[in-house]
Design goal:
The protein has helices at 15-27, 40-48, 76-85, 103-111, 124-141; strands at 7-11, 33-37, 64-67, 94-98, 116-119. The protein is α/β, with parallel strands linked by helices. It has a single domain (7-139), classed as 3-Layer(aba) Sandwich (Rossmann fold), CATH 3.40.50.2300. The protein has a 5-stranded parallel beta sheet.
Length: 148
């Protein structure tokens, strides 16, 4: 798989879920750089080169955003809305990766432009398979839009 040089932005506030996701991504041998943002503000700062990421080139965008919904400071739906409202980020693939089973979250995520909505499996082996499949599809098989 030729995924070197690609960046995954993982937006996750739960330390256990972060660790499981990182382990699953490592186990899938995708070879990506993974940037972790632990709340919505940090995710937006990374994407737009503001706050603690001031000076980072916002033109170097992640190839995939894995976005939890239940985040401190700014929730995932607000982050998604901000991503989709900016011409520079609106086409970035955003996969909602959440434990939420609320129908309203599912509907709102898609209405705001999520590319996919995945509920985190409780079983670790199933979780690893889900992350591997997700990585294979979004980072290898999917043809991304050209940079804006």
């Amino acid at each position: 798989m030729n995924t070197l040089g690609t960046i995954i932005l993982l937006v996750e506030d739960n330390a256990d879920d972060e660790l499981l996701t990182l382990r699953a991504l490592k186990k899938s041998n995708l070879g990506n750089e993974i940037v972790v943002a632990r709340d919505g503000v940090e995710a937006l700062d990374y994407l737009f080169g503001t706050g603690k990421y001031m000076g980072r080139n916002p033109g170097e965008r992640p190839n995939l955003i894995l976005l939890d919904l239940k985040l401190p400071r700014i929730n995932g739906l607000e982050v998604l809305e901000r991503i989709r409202s900016d011409a520079q980020t609106r086409l970035l693939p955003v996969v909602i990766l959440t434990s939420s089973v609320e129908q309203e979250d599912l509907l709102r995520s898609y209405s705001l432009g999520a590319n996919s909505y995945i509920r985190k499996p409780v079983d670790f082996n199933q979780f690893i398979r889900s992350i591997q499949d997700l990585g294979l599809y979004w980072l290898v098989l999917n043809q991304p839009p050209p940079p804006v």
